[in-house]
Amino acid sequence: MNKIADVPANYQQTKRPYLIMLLFLILLTAGCSSKGVAYTDGVVARLDHNGTHYSYVKWSPDGEQIAYIQDRNLWIKNMKSGKSRKLVSGSSISHAAWMNADQIAYFTTTDSNSLQGELGAVTLDSRNKTILFKNIAWFNTLSIHNQIAYLETGKQGVLKLNLSESLSEPDTLDPNLTNGSEFVLSPDGSKLLYLEKTEERSINGIFLKQIKIYNINERATKQVQLSKPFEVIYSYCWSADGSHLAFAAQYPGQLPNLYIYKIDSKAAPIMLPFPENAGYMAWSPTQNQIVYTTVGQPSGNEIRVIDIPDELLQ
User: Can you tell me whether residue 140 is helix, strand or coil?
Assistant: First the structure.
């Protein structure tokens, strides 16, 4: 018997919806990004049995690698190959930031009693290390753009250092962030996003915080006006083009989630569910992806990546 003749006439029409659905599921599983292909969707680095702690995760300028601090040692990870390698060890590194595609600056504590340290730099290929500045007081935040470093020291406020001039003296910027709040430098290096505590307290006893943007060149500050204030903000970052903000935050009576907010928009931030809460976040300069560390527990934490749908950034 000719089996082809036994195929119903409407077989192709019947099969097509199933093929379309199968294709949709495959694409959904693979994930998507601004370039159509995600490097990673999910866990980038897991905790180990020793309770590994990850912090200060940062994308490279080309978006192909991340730098992070693992148990106070500096590591990098290639997001395409998945390979990781340790750049600087010593168990005393607390901050890191990319200077360019080939160098990473880091802070090492040299005197734990006085919280003094050194700002150094390491070259990726050769692993050569140089000291940029000595006898720097411990600070809360380190951000770098075009060889200009910004350090939030708490007592002195935000210091501005020119990394290309080793003998340069730091300038102090306004505002004086004496509350120890970490800031995030905008992608073009022109603005600081930071939080300012208020005297108002929430139901859970946690201070509500005002979100502010400081323009470095104009020395002017404006407040981010949300339709409804967050109760707690755990971490925050700029989008790659500086048009949106991302907050790991929660509203009163709700669980923490990820919120995407378009700057100067009157619309409420768009919510994306977070598999875990975030301690540090950074937006990829080339992909609509956010890399973040889960909040550290005694057993350790993880580094994860989440895709941000393009339609949320319109």
Answer: coil
Q: What is the DSSP letter of 276?
A: S
- Among candidate residues 310, 290, 301, the one with its CA nearest the CA of residue 63: 290
Among all chains, which residue has been given the structure tokens 């380190």?
142
| HSE toward the beta carbon, residue 103, CA cutoff 13 A | 18
Does residue 103 contact residue 85 with C-beta atoms inside 8 Å? no
The tokens describing 207, both together, are 């201070």
Burial (Cβ within 10 Å: 0-12, 13-18, ≥19) of residue 292: buried
For 89-99, b where at least 16 C-beta lie within 10 A, e where not — what string?
eeebbbbbbbb
Sheet holding 158-162, edge to edge: 141-145, 148-152, 158-162, 171-173
Residue-wise pLDDT for 268-310, tens only, equals 999 988 766 788 999 999 989 999 988 755 555 888 888 998 8
How far is Cα of residue 79 from the mean position of the Cα atoms in its chain?
A: 15
User: Which ranges of the chain have pLDDT less than 70?
Assistant: 1-51, 91, 154-155, 174-181, 275-276, 296-300
Extract the tokens encoding 297.
């527990």
The answer to whether 200 and 229 are in contact (CB under 8 A) is no
Instruction: Write the DSSP string, 222-283.
Output: EE---SS--SEEEEEEE-TTSSEEEEEEE-TTS--EEEEEETT--SPPEEE--SS-EEEEEE
* CA–CA gap between residue 259 and residue 247 (Å, rounded): 5
* CA–CA distance, 186 with 90 (Å, rounded to integer): 30
57 neighbors 74 (Cβ within 8 angstroms) = no
C-alpha dihedral, 266 to 267 to 271 to 272, nearest 10° = -100
The DSSP code for 256 is -
Residue 18 dihedral angles phi and psi, to the nearest 5°: -70, -40
